[in-house]
TrEMBL record:
Family annotation (Pfam families): Arm (PF00514)
Biased composition (Basic and acidic residues): 301-310
Domain of life from the UniProt record: Eukaryota
Name of the protein: Armadillo repeat protein
Keyword Repeat: yes
Organism for this UniProt entry: Ajellomyces capsulatus (strain H143) (Darling's disease fungus)
BP term (GO), one: proteasome-mediated ubiquitin-dependent protein catabolic process
Amino acid sequence: MFGYLLIPLLIRIFEKDYEAPGDVSIHESALISTTLRAKEEAPAILASLVLDSRELQKHAAEAEAIPKLSQMLKETFSPISEAAKPMWNSDKNLATTSNPTQPELCLGPRGCSHAVYHRMKVREGALKALAALSLFKEDYRRMICDNGVVPYIIDSMKPCEEDSLETLDCNPPSTLLAACAAARSLTRSVSALRTNLIDAGVATPMFTLIKFRDIAVQIAATSVVCNLAMDFSPMKDAIIGANMIPILCEHSHSSNTSLRLESIWALKHIAYNSTNDIKMKIVEELEPGWLKQVICHDPGDPPIRRKGEDDMGGTSSLGMEAPNSAGERVDILNPMDGVEGETIPGQDGDYSMTNTVVSPKPTSLDVSLIDYSRRRKLAVSGDLDQTKQARRDDLQVQEQTLDLLRNLICGVGAPEMIDYLFQEVGQNDLFNILADKLRPKPIAKYGGRKDSLSSSSKCIPVPTEILCSVTYIVIHIAAGLPRHRQLLIQHPTLLKLMMPLFNNPDKQVRVNCVWVVINLTIADDQMDHASCCERAMKLESLGVMEKLLSLENDAESDVKERTKTALSLMHALLQ
């Protein structure tokens, strides 16, 4: 409700004739007027309000926020007309000739004037607001394009040099980030991608910003490239032609999780439906050993291992992980009240603990222990929060890397790429890694007290994202040549580990499993019929028929229809 009341007030500030109540033209300490300050802050406030709310975005759009923001953005590129007022001097002749930019009149390098700074803040805020308004709805993206601001968004991506702080045709990093956010929102529109954005040359500034000195700008630019590299984008060839693949592969090795994730995501899009030479170049630049290492890593394996028992009086050390490099917000911990003798829950025993805060002054023993316990739990909880975020980051990176492998071995020339991947990564290694990805991990594996968990303890389920990615890869291998299918069916554990997935709650996992059966039982020609029969018998021995029969009446029509096809093929081969 508060947002609905606030949005009209903010949009009123966007109007050119707006003046803050009680504003004065003269301000102490060279501060800008309240009106100008409001125009700087209002667009950014609107962006934060509507960012995750489709209802508030609609409310703002109906109040004509987009045309007014578009006009504000355009006006930030208008020349600044300032009457040059000479510095006072008792000698009138000197007063008219003195230049405040003379070295003897300046302390340090010349900074940005108030007028330029104000324009840049308004530009940044308008870009943020346009990006937030166009996140979801195609109509709002079209409205932004119709207001003619796409060229201004592109111009907002021109970075500033150190010696050009007084010009309006270049932008500081904060404005570059806002411009990239607006461009990324617009690149979600297929029509804008094929018309307005390509006409304005959106790809060209990206090739510069992806190598910018600020890593946050690199991440933002890479996220735009990720959308520009989609298969339907006319700029995909331009990205390849601009030699972006080596840069993206280099960034994929970055220690910054966000940059690594966005780069792999962009490479995944580039690989889709590309020629085999492009796909092989991606593998070579990434390095097969690195690919194997990424997909081998277990995202559920906590980076913080128990190094020793900790007690209230102990001072064990802790190798805390780095903060979330993705820049994502984590939960803000409220102070927790503690009592003497209170213990940390048992699940926290999986992590090493430490006292990272200086002990309070011992004015009271009870107060000291309570404060000590509270601070200690805050430190541990913050550590766990970072650990959870690190796991989520690792999971996303691994998911996109597996999807990259999937795109490498699909489409025209897939059999050649399957052989290439077997050669570079290792056939047995790849199959073993895929099998391990499907294998649930016992909770006992993750540290904790050995005597608290039995060998029959519960397992941590494999994330659905990983299951989907792995089963897609298996689908494409099964769709390869007959010898690829034979290698797959002969693996001792991979297909066996897929059997429980036929009843997975996720419909995509279920339908993927059925597709594997279909691809393994379709004969390329008459010569492959005998091998198909052998594969069908192997699948039957694994219990596939029972799994397929259980899916005959699946609630999802796609699963049901694919199951009919798989059962028909199996029955024909087993007769």
